[in-house]
Amino acid sequence: SRMLLLALLALLGPAGCPKTEPLSGSSQEPLFRGADRYDFAIVIPAGAVECFWQFAHQSGNFFFSYEASRATGIANSRNILATASDPNGFQLGVSQHVRGQINFLTKETGFYQLCLDNQQNHFGFMQVYLNFGVYYEGFNTENKQPEERKELNDTLEAIGVSIRKLQLHIFHMWRFYNFARMRKGADSILLESNYNYVNWWSVAQSCVIVLSGALQLCFLKRLFTVQTPSRQQC
């Protein structure tokens, strides 16, 4: 019975474990190289750490941009700690500012970790815009052999290379547009908070001025009040 149990575990163990690397179909085909990218906003509680994992293949270009748009609490500081680590846990980049970028080349295939640390703000949440992903160059005509360069002279192949280059340029334009949009959103939120701050302080100071004027008038009237004696003197 023990031999039968060991044989059953040997059959189900390695064959039943799925591969963590996404494939483009069957196992004989090469790994699918996509250009996954994400763009969203997240609210990080006080003293909390939020982490994300992005899958990337080897020889890819990883980018990570962030913008802290709003912060609450006593300190009201928008500085946040952002870190990026490889699949083995080795730290690849650190940034601790209001906004920042972390770019690096992926040297191995796996899940890369991105973390945002809000430990500096202990009494308030922070809203952060994120834009991260990975892209692959795909074509590099400078390192091609002469025979392969001759094949690129074909019309369809040249059109394909031009389309891929155009897609790559559009992708970089999209990155810079997102980063500019994050800064614009953060500036609009800052202007709105300053506008509300100035309005509330103006109303409070106006109330204090009116109240102090009424109190001064009351005290001045009491100084000039003449008390009439209760008995009339002859």
TrEMBL record:
It is found in: Endoplasmic reticulum membrane; Membrane. The keyword Isomerase does not apply. One of its GO terms (cellular component) is endoplasmic reticulum membrane. InterPro entries: Emp24-like, GOLD_dom. Keywords: Endoplasmic reticulum, Membrane, Signal, Transmembrane, Transmembrane helix. Residues 49-134 form the GOLD domain. It is a single-pass type I membrane protein. Its main location: endoplasmic reticulum. The keyword Transmembrane applies. It comes from the Eukaryota. Pfam families: EMP24_GP25L. Residues 1-17 form the signal peptide. Belongs to the EMP24/GP25L family. This is TMED6 protein. It comes from Pygoscelis papua (Gentoo penguin).
